[in-house]
Amino acid sequence: MITKCLFPVAGYGTRFLPATKSMPKEMLPIVNKPLVQYGVEEALSAGLTEVTFVTGRGKRAIEDHFDISYELEHQIEGTGKEMYLDGIRHIMQECSFSYIRQREMKGLGHAILTGEKTIGNEAFGVVLADDLCIEQEGDGVMAQMVRLYKQFRCSIVAIEEVPMEEIHRYGVIEGEQIKDGLFQVTRMVEKPKPEDAPSNYAIIGRYILTPDIFDIIRNTPPGANGEIQITDALMKQAQDGCVMAYRFKGRRFDCGSVDGFIEATNYCYDHFYK
Q1: Which residue segments constitute the domains of the chain, with CATH numbers given?
Q2: Rounded to whole angstroms, how far apart are CA atoms 43 and 125?
């Protein structure tokens, strides 16, 4: 049973400057809820209750968000405004939180390796809060992937089809189709040119990883942009064993970009707040 989930949140969020100069990008609100809370809610709905944030300097607001604010709660106690805290209070009751610093920004692979001591020898989830995934019917993306893990017992990456003109922004898979929407990965390429891309199936920010990934990352040399790429480590894992790629059910918004962030805000307001 998978109960642990890593949230790499140490990035600078430069595409949202100057807002992210003093505010973590993961705390940017989609309507009235920060991005990172959507991700933790998705993890919790999949049974992932032991949450580790791989954090960095200037990210204290994330810790404060998943903690009690005595002054605020005293001020609104007994008023109708208390209802606005129901969601975060539920998360705090159901989840445990730990925080570990990623002292240098060396890529997603390095961020995941930084969280090794809190994970131990267990399979675990990884959620990138920049990718906001909204279930449109049924379970969230992580819950869908946990079900698959129980069947295949190997690392799983979430994928979606993206236009070829955007493929250079993603890790891309090539694989043998096992059934509709599920592939056994044979190759991965990080941020290829459109003419070099093996498919238009892009990896998005949801993973389930088996614990042997840590030793593989440790032995993975820097790749694209001089960073330790998780796709390189997963490619090695696929060559030696098995990695599955899953075309998830739901709607995903790239909230690491301004356009995607605005689109997500409008969608959530129209569907959940009107």
Answers
A1: 4-273 (3.90.550.10)
A2: 8
